[in-house]
Design a protein that fits this description.
The protein has 411 residues and is of the alpha+beta class. It has helices at residues 2-20, 22-25, 28-40, 63-69, 111-128, 147-157, 187-199, 212-216, and strands spanning 44-52, 78-86, 91-95, 161-165, 173-176, 179-184, 204-208, 232-238, 241-247, 253-260, 274-280, 283-289, 295-302, 318-325, 328-334, 340-347, 364-365, 369-372, 378-387, 393-402, 408-410. The chain starts with a helix and ends with a strand.
């Protein structure tokens, strides 16, 4: 018999979950209205399930339930996509469904006017809807209904943030398994707590509106303090973003600070594509996504780039080495453009430049190459070394002018 009851409750839970979103997800019109409310009026919509463990009385819904389902403008603007779940008959009813709103012709209005229009329609809906339209909400509990088991199954399996509300002052805390929940007696205070979550990005909430039947059927009641609110409990993913996971002080968790907006741990896949350019040691390179959330260096775009802060030595400043010209040695001077010019005469008919009785005829030549300075940077010249018959280099022949990537233009 116990095996049969367990399977029954698992089946019931699957049915409940499939029913909870019937109002908002199966109706494309409702989805469009939700999108318009968020974009045009800045209203955050969220799924609210009000769980009833006993019948309701009267012709209209209690003011507490109406307040939970109304438009709130406390911290940010929030509006419920609400549903009523009656435990026992296990009936789920859409209540204050978004698709009931008439927003035709409203998008030429300001955000404030649109918000006022929504508020007026929601208030009218809540105040005029009759309990007689919801037959099972008026039925008294049957002795065969195991409300405790149904409630516990729901709490154990839901991913919603769960709250308890009561018009009485005791108990102050309900313990369900290892989790503890405060019992709210002020409906405005409860709605503020819910709004606090919704304004931080949470999307689904469940409220046990009358917990007395859960208590009377044997749930443990305790006043022990749960883990302090705000204590770190790891991290959690919301879509592709990773956030801190914090205890909410009620046995559950809340979202903390953002850790990574596009986290690979949360399933985000980075595309390997260009991401602009970047500077390395004064030269400009492609900046490329590495597919892991970071970047890598691509091909060289411009060596010694002015855009990367590189500046050539000023014209007229001395450079290392010397320049030979017609057998004489001259000081080597920067021209301010990455190349060199002759400076003052150091030695006429210099042996270092092939003079002084040595053979200054060019007997062999080296392979043409791009000239580099003492730091390994291209000078902007394509040169060829000239050697005499004894193998001594007697001069350098400039073959072409080049840019700083050694792309040359023949003389």
């Amino acid at each position: 018999m116990k095996r049969y009851q367990y399977n029954f409750y698992i089946f019931l839970f699957i049915w409940l979950i499939s029913s909870l979103f019937a109002c908002s997800e199966s109706n494309p019109e409702a989805d469009d209205i939700i999108k318009d409310l968020e974009v045009e009026a800045g209203i955050n919509t969220f799924s609210l399930t009000i769980i009833l463990s006993d019948k309701l009385n009267g012709e209209t819904f209690p003011a507490d339930i109406q307040h939970l389902c109304s438009l709130s403008k406390w911290k940010c603007k929030t509006l419920t996509v609400a549903g009523l779940l009656r435990l026992g008959p296990n009936k789920y009813y859409p209540y204050n469904c978004i698709s009931e709103l008439d927003l035709s012709g409203s998008f030429q209005k300001s955000e404030a006017m649109l918000t006022q229009m929504v508020d007026r329609q929601v208030t009218a809906y809540l105040s005029t809807t009759k309990l007689t339209d919801y037959h099972s909400l008026l039925l008294p509990n049957d002795s065969t209904w195991n409300i405790k088991a149904l409630s516990q199954t729901y709490i154990d399996n839901t991913t919603d943030s769960v709250f308890f509300f009561s018009n009485s002052s005791t108990p102050s805390v309900i313990q369900s398994g290892s989790r503890m929940y405060p019992v709210y007696t002020d409906i405005k205070g409860l709605r503020k707590e819910i709004d606090e979550l919704i304004c931080k990005g949470y999307e689904t909430v469940s409220v046990f509106y009358d917990h007395s039947s859960l208590n009377s059927s044997g749930s443990t009641i305790t006043t022990t303090n749960p883990t302090l609110k705000g204590k770190h409990a790891g991290d959690t993913c919301i879509r592709y973003s990773k956030y801190e996971k914090l205890h909410d002080g009620m046995g559950g968790f809340i979202r903390g600070n953002l850790i990574d907006s596009n986290s690979a741990d949360c399933g985000y896949v980075f595309a390997a594509r260009l991401a602009g350019d970047t500077c390395v040691n004064g030269s400009k390179y492609q900046k490329v996504h590495n597919g892991k959330g970071g970047f890598k260096i691509g091909r060289l775009l411009e060596r010694n780039s002015r855009g990367c802060g590189f500046t050539f030595p000023a014209r007229g400043t001395s450079a290392a080495g010397f320049i030979c010209y017609k057998g004489s040695k001259f000081a080597k001077i920067h021209n301010g453009k990455g190349s060199f010019i002759r400076g003052r005469l150091i030695e006429a008919n210099s042996s270092a430049c092939g003079s002084g009785g040595t053979d200054i005829r060019c007997f062999t030549k080296s392979e043409p190459k791009c000239e580099k300075d003492s730091k390994g940077n291209y000078t902007g010249r394509k040169v060829q070394s000239c050697y005499n018959k004894s193998g001594r280099m007697i001069r350098t022949i400039v073959l072409a002018k080049c840019d700083l990537d050694c792309r040359c233009f023949e003389n």
